[in-house]
């Protein structure tokens, strides 16, 4: 694909941006473009203004809701649960009602997606809003969402919550609300809680609590997730965003040292790895099997990314099973030596263990462990001291406590500090910066692992690759990065998020992917023009991490996804995103191709992502319609770019005419000397 001219023109006009822009010095570095087969680094689709506008009903519904939200924000009528429509869109209009010219607010029934069906409707339900008080209306439960619409307010108060976002549903007393003596508290995964009150006879007749539990947790009730019923049509197929062979070819692979292998095509080497992996050319399959037996869950060291010049590589794997007796594996030792030898620029291999040293020692006593310098003499072991999934889960719980429903203004900063959330974000970013610096400046290959290699490892490798490779900072490049480092390499999304499961106390749940997206957002704050995508893009990804509307984040590994027919029976999130790229584009984007970004991993440079974590509180929302402003800037940028291209063509035409006249013998021209 052609690289958009807008990036080049803007780069020439703007040069290096001040403060956070990538450039020489501590903020970033530059290297020549990557060669190799496949598109060049930073390549992407034509600019959004050249794409045909999608006509899918989901997209049109999105645009109408965004417009309605902006209007309500300006009039000051937005409430916390009238979800920020410029961030979240789950509903779809009744097309027949639209044809009749009816407004969305006039529709009596809950709007449904293709494939969605209503399971229960209850009138005279009271939503107890922590910001505007009790609101009476009609509650509808479908197989995808909980939908509440006020009966008397104008404009209507609407609560639209995907069932996938629900963590647990509990019965509570509601005696203080008159006839509505029954109550339900709904605890959500996206930083909010909801309370509903209704009459006892309505509960007995319609089973509101039972319906919610049944459809919010379908897997616990012998049903399938809604993503398998969703039948929307999109003009693009998001499942084609990532092809492993094409991505490795983009990186210049295979080469004399590395081969694209299908040794795991049947998932027999490692059942949580993708079918296609990159391993050293000289390694035999038998030796690879022995290495797999020595690594936790069989997750052997494989290549994630290779530097286009030095050939330094990012390798990911799981911990070695050395155990308390310091067991050794000669095949594993030789394997890591081969990885080091593949990089002629360095005679050293850096092993980044994401864990705390003390925790790694504990794992060693349980049969796990880490690489010793005696067994791996050319390797240097570095512990990054990142806490485990349980610590991160507790940190997010504390953050939710201070962010919803009320914010203590007097103690806000100290309360945020007490959650340690930003400290853990800082530790992740600092670790990724160290990895990127060893690759870029040290020209040294690195191995990254934690215990099993699917949580902290994915965070670190993906962040380091985002810093090193400008392609991943485009919209489709970032989608490919998620597909590659998170989805194909077996981050346990189903367990960490708890899709469709009612066991809210499951110790396997943890906000690992949320932390990664938070780190990316922190980078966009420090380098505001280095990323093609905007904040809405990141929030949309997180919303659909929970929604179970798309198949992208379902299951725990590639093998499971094929077994469940995810790729053929569900729709990719990227189908939705890539059908309306202008909604998710950053108007300030400049394609700093081949620049390395080094974000400042200091608490003084980090901030809480208020637009995500505290978005349900109307007092914490931006007063200006930011998303609409960005869209207008994109339109202005497109118009200016068109003018630039017209002027360039005009200059080229004049230069051509002048050249032709100058070459004519009947029109002698005196040479003009210019200096710069």
Q: Would you summarize the structure shown here?
A:
The radius of gyration is 27 Å and the shape is globular.
Name the structural class: alpha+beta
**What number of structural domains do the residues give?**
2
The gyration radius over C-alpha positions equals 27 Å
Strand content: 5-15%
Main beta sheet, described? 7 strands, antiparallel
Total beta-strand segments = 16
Mean pLDDT: 84
Low-confidence sequence ranges: 1-27, 35-106, 667-676
Continuous helix count:
22
The termini sit apart by 34 Å
Helix content range of the residues, please?
A: 25-40%
Dominant shape: globular
Strand order across the biggest sheet? 5-4-3-2-8-7-6
Main location: cytoplasm
Subcellular location: Cytoplasm; Endomembrane system
GO biological process, one term: phosphatidylinositol dephosphorylation
InterPro entries: GRAM (IPR004182), MTMR1_PH-GRAM (IPR037857), MTMR1_PTP (IPR030587), Myotubularin (IPR030564), Myotubularin-like_Pase_dom (IPR010569), PH-like_dom_sf (IPR011993), Prot-tyrosine_phosphatase-like (IPR029021), Tyr_Pase_AS (IPR016130)
């Amino acid at each position: 694909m052609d690289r958009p001219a807008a990036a080049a023109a803007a780069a020439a006009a703007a040069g290096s941006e001040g403060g956070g822009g990538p450039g020489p010095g501590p903020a970033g570095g530059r290297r020549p473009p990557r060669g190799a087969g496949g598109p060049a680094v930073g390549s992407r689709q034509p600019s959004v203004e050249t794409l045909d506008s999608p006509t899918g009903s989901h997209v049109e519904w999105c645009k109408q809701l965004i417009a309605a939200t902006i209007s309500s924000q300006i009039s000051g009528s937005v409430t916390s649960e009238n979800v920020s429509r410029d961030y979240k869109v789950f509903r779809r209009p009744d097309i027949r009602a639209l044809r009749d010219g009816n407004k969305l607010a006039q529709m009596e029934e809950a709007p449904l997606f293709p494939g969605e069906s209503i399971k229960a409707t209850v009138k005279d339900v009271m939503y107890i809003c922590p910001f505007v008080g009790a609101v009476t209306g009609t509650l509808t439960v479908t197989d995808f969402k909980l939908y509440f619409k006020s009966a008397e307010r104008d404009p209507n108060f609407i609560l639209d919550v995907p069932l996938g976002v629900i963590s647990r549903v509990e019965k509570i007393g509601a005696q203080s609300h008159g006839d509505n003596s029954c109550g339900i508290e709904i605890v959500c995964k996206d930083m909010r809680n909801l309370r509903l009150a209704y009459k006892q006879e309505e509960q007995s007749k319609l089973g509101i609590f039972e319906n919610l539990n049944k459809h919010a947790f379908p897997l616990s009730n012998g049903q399938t997730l809604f993503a398998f019923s969703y039948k929307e049509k999109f003009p693009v197929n998001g499942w084609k965003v990532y092809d492993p062979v094409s991505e490795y070819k983009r990186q210049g692979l295979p080469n004399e040292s590395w081969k694209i292998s299908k040794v795991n095509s049947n998932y027999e080497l490692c059942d949580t790895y993708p079918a296609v992996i990159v391993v050293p050319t000289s390694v035999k399959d038998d030796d690879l099997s022995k290495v797999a037996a020595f690594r936790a869950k069989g997750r052997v060291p494989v290549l994630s990314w290779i530097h286009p010049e030095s050939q330094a590589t990012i390798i990911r794997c799981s911990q070695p099973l050395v155990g308390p007796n310091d067991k050794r594996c000669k095949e594993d030792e030789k394997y890591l030596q081969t990885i080091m030898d593949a990089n002629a620029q360095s005679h050293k291999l850096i092993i980044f263990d994401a864990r705390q040293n003390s925790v790694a020692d504990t794992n060693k006593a349980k049969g796990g462990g880490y690489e010793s310098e005696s067994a791996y003499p050319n390797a240097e072991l570095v512990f990054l001291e990142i806490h485990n999934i349980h610590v991160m889960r507790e940190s997010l719980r504390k953050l939710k406590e201070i962010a919803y429903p009320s914010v203590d203004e007097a103690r806000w900063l100290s309360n945020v500090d007490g959650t340690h959330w930003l400290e853990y974000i800082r530790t992740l970013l600092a670790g990724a910066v160290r990895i990127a610096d060893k690759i870029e400046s040290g020209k040294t290959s690195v191995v990254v692992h934690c215990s099993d290699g699917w949580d902290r490892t994915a965070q670190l490798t993906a962040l380091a690759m985002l810093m090193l490779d400008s392609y991943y900072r485009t919209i489709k490049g970032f989608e490919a990065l998620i597909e590659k480092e998170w989805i194909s390499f077996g981050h346990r999304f189903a367990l960490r998020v708890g899709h469709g499961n009612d066991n809210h106390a499951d110790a396997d749940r943890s906000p690992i992917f949320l932390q990664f997206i938070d780190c990316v957002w922190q980078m966009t704050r420090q380098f505001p023009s280095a990323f093609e995508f905007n904040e809405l893009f990141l929030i949309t990804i997180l919303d659909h991490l929970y929604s179970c509307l798309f198949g992208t984040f379902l299951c725990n590994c590639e093998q499971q996804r094929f077994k469940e027919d995810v790729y053929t029976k569900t729709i990719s999130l990227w189908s939705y995103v890539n059908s309306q790229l202008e909604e998710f584009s950053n108007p300030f984007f400049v394609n700093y191709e081949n620049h390395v970004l080094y974000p400042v991993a200091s608490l003084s440079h980090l901030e809480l992502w208020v637009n995500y974590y505290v978005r349900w509180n109307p007092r914490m929302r931006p007063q200006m319609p930011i998303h609409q402003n960005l869209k207008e800037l994109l339109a202005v940028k497109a118009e200016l770019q068109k003018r630039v291209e017209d002027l360039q063509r005009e200059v080229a035409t004049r230069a051509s005419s002048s050249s032709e006249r100058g070459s004519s013998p009947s029109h002698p021209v005196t040479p003009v000397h210019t200096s710069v």
